[in-house]
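Intended use. Records like the one below are meant for learning the mapping from a protein sequence to its folded structure. Do not use them to infer anything beyond what is encoded.
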Amino acid sequence: MRHITAMRHITAMRHITTMRHITAMRHITAMRHITAMQHITAMRWCCLVTDHSSAIHFSFAFHCW
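Structure written out for the chain above:
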């Protein structure tokens, strides 16, 4: 009985670790995608805004947001 319980526990632990890894990977990918999108938007803002200080402000605001 102890052996079966131990096996189940190991399987459960592996499953949780795998799930966490997948979730973490998805989160990183999502974060990269959001950051890339914000960067593109910030770059567009930089092109639209003529004042250099305003461009920096917009870029900084997007990265913080």
